[in-house]
Amino acid sequence: MSARVRLQGKARQAVLSVPTEAVIKTGKRSLVMLALEKGRYQPQEVLIGMESGERTEIVAGLQEGQKVITSGQFLLDSEASLLGIDITTLNDVATTPADSKHEARGEIRDINAEGVQIAHGPLHTLGMPGMTMRFPLSTELQNATGDTRALMQALKIGSHVNFAVHQTEDGLEITQIAPVSMNDTQEVAP
Predict the structure, then answer these.
(1) Cys-Cys crosslink for 136: which of 16, 31, 115, 169, Cβ 3.0 to 4.6 Å?
(2) How far is residue 164's CA from residue 101's CA, in Å, rounded to a whole number?
């Protein structure tokens, strides 16, 4: 058997693209490494479109003129390598007032001096999907509780919590956290 096929598509205007090797696909999201001043780098979440040849279309997350790293990304391409690094997400947090609080529910996976690691549901107001990440406690929360150790002892690994975070220059930090009943259901990350 044979067939004749004609494919038609709309003509497209110029699109923003990067070399395909510059895109880091973690399985949950796509990232590129931005080249900043003084030899620094910053992961940036991007929404990718079509791939053609050795180029990948960037639908959202980058602007024309930004510099991305195109080689050496193999050193950075595992999700574990990206833990603890502030990643600029598609929904730029600069569009949200700095004093805004963002709430979610999650399950505590680890607690230490650096903060609380939570597998959480989406932070909708930030456009952030559910994931597992570590949040430090805000200075205000530490001062309000008086004894951070007492707060940490009240929170156990495996506990379900409601929490709120706010954006600082150093990233997101917890401003409120409280255990919740297992019967009170909401979205929690796997």
Answers:
(1) 115
(2) 6
Mean pLDDT of 57-84: 69
Instruction: Lay out the sheet containing 17-19: strands in order across.
Output: 17-19, 55-60, 41-52, 30-35, 24-25
**Lowest-pLDDT range of 5-9, 35-39, 87-91, 173-177:** 87-91
Q: Is residue 64 exposed (0-12), middle (13-18) or buried (19+ Cβ within 10 Å)?
A: exposed
Question: Is the Cβ–Cβ distance between 109 and 135 less than 8 Å?
Answer: no
The 10s digit of each residue's pLDDT in 39-68 is: 777 888 888 888 888 899 988 888 888 888
Rounded CA separation 67/52 (Å): 20
To which residue do tokens 């919590």 refer? 161
Ordered domains of the chain (ranges, CATH): 17-82 (2.40.420.20), 96-179 (2.40.50.320)
- Which amino acid, residue 14? A
What the block records as the tokens of 154 is: 């009240």
Q: Is 24 helix (H, G, I), strand (E, B) or coil?
A: strand
Bridge partners for 1 per DSSP? none
Place of tokens 């395909």: 20
Q: What is the mean pLDDT of residues 138-153?
A: 66
Phi, psi of 28 (to 5 degrees): -105, -25
Residue 59: CB partners within 8 Å, gap ≥ 6? Answer: 46, 47, 48, 49
